[in-house]
Structures are given as structure tokens and as C-alpha cells.
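lol ok so funny story. i was supposed to be doing the assay writeup but got distracted and ended up predicting the structure for this chain instead. priorities right. anyway since i did it might as well share w the group, maybe its usefull for someone
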Amino acid sequence: MKPMKKVTVPCLHQMKAEGRKITALTAYDATIAALEDAAGMDIILVGDSAGMVISGDKDTLAITLEEMIFLTKSVSRGVKRALLVADMPFGSFQPSSEIAIGSAIRFMKEGHAEGIKIEGAGPLLESIEKMTAMGIPVMGHLGLTPQSVHAFGGYQLRGVGDKEAKRIQEDALRLQDAGVFSIVLEKIPAELAATVSRSLTIPTIGIASGAACDGQILVCYDMLGLNPYQFKFVRRYLDGAVILREAFSKYIQDIQNGSFPSEEESFHG
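and the output, tada:
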């Protein structure tokens, strides 16, 4: 069997140029990452969504740089083919370009990330431009940026008014000029996402932003049905919560009725 080609930043740009859709999914550990990678995923993102789905926080703001580096390093051990991208957590890049660059370098050196993702534009463009000039691959993120949840007042659709839609379009072009290799567009109208995608030479990766983006990403726990909430934009490919609960219940029953471990599952001296 011919080995699958390693996905790189130039590969993603070629996929955009050829009209081939890019596949992306989050992962937070080596086991799930290895399964996604073997399936042929193009991008594996160690999302700061780990703060919610792993740590149980109410938002993504609390997870630390140290925690994200640990998770990224863990995921890297399961990735061979996909491009491994890590989320820059809240507070790890906003204070200054020096802090942002230092955080990104730690992700690359300690976490073995092959790129980092930063939410927003505006005052962050200087940091992004410096990082990309240094050879650090940066993925942008516009629309609903979860680290700004308190400023937004919730997780509602973004870019619905002319003013905000125009700003998203302009920020996308500014991010491209700053050197980002792709941009995540989260929870914006499908028509706006299509317009932004057509305006760029770099690929867009959509989540809750319609089918016209150059690729799609979801939180793996959502598409596996492990999240108790059913979001409009999530297609569940597995009823994971039900399957796992049934397995755990059967395990408990087998221990309690004495059928586990069996003779075949036991050792004798």
C-alpha cells in the first residue's frame, strides 16, 4: 500500500487552487489523533475547546498555555500525515508581539505543532506578520471567535449586519497580507463565507458557515455524539454517548455477576 503524502501548508494551497475540499477535525489525545490521521484527515487542530470538552469549563478562556502545550505534544504522537495545528489560548498572544512569538515558539518546540491558530485581526496583525516572517505557520480565525464571548455577549451568529460583514471581509484580506496560510470562518452567514472564500487565494476552513468554504472543521466530540447538546451546524456521525454508556454498564454488570474476568482472561502460575 502506497503511504499517504504528508500534508503541508503548500499542499493546502494546492488543494484550494484545484478545488479539492480540505478536511479538519479537533483532537486532544494521541489515541483519537491517530485514528483521525489514519482515516486521512488533512488538518488536526488541538483546539482550546479542550477547556470545555476536556476540562469541563463553561468557555475556552480558562485553559492555559502549559495545558495546551501538553495536549499538543500528546496529539503529536498520534499524527503522521495530517498538518498539526495548535490553538493559541487566551492570554498567550494578546499582550505583545514578544509574548505571542514566545508562545508560538513553545508550541513548535515543546508541543511539536506544525502551525498555530490565532483568533482575531486588528491589533494582532503586527504579531502575525512577525511570526509568519519568522517561518511560523499561522492560521487565522474570524467571525465568532470564542475567546471574545464576553465582548459578543454570547455565541450568536456574527457578520449579519453590513458593517460587521464588511469588517470580516477586510480582516480576511489583511490576515492574508500578514501571511496566514488559512483562515477559520466560524458561525457567519453562508453567503458571507462564500464571498470571503472567493476573495482569498488562501483556503478558508468553515464551521457553521456553510458549504462554500474550502474546507470544514468540527469539534470531534460533537460529531461523535459525545456532547449532550445537538447544534444546528453539527452532523453526528456516531451516537457515541449512548454506545459508551452501554459499554460501561455492561462492564459493571459483568464484574458484579462474576463473568469478568473469565477463565480465559485470567493467568495462573
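The longest helix spans residues 162-178. Residues 115 and 135 are 10 Å apart (CA to CA).
back to the writeup now i swear
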